[in-house]
Specification:
Blueprint: H1 3-12, H2 17-23, H3 28-35, H4 43-65
């Protein structure tokens, strides 16, 4: 996962860096490093972000059809 994709997913699900850091038990500094490409994003974190993004899209879909 690239830094921009990480940031795009976080933004799409409507979380600040601080909110995401609390959700995944990580420091805001590390979130910032990932988003700015200063540190490689581990595969487990990338997978978790992709799942959060998919969950958000599924929730939006069901909200639209209600």
């Amino acid at each position: 996962m690239e830094a921009q994709e990480f940031k795009d997913i976080r933004s799409a699900i409507g979380l600040t860096q601080s909110q995401l850091s609390h959700q995944i038990d990580m420091t805001v500094v590390m979130i910032s490093y990932y988003e700015n490409g200063k540190h490689p994003i581990p595969k487990t974190i990338a997978s978790m972000m992709k799942l959060l993004g998919m969950q958000h899209e599924i929730n939006k879909f069901f909200e639209e059809i209600e």
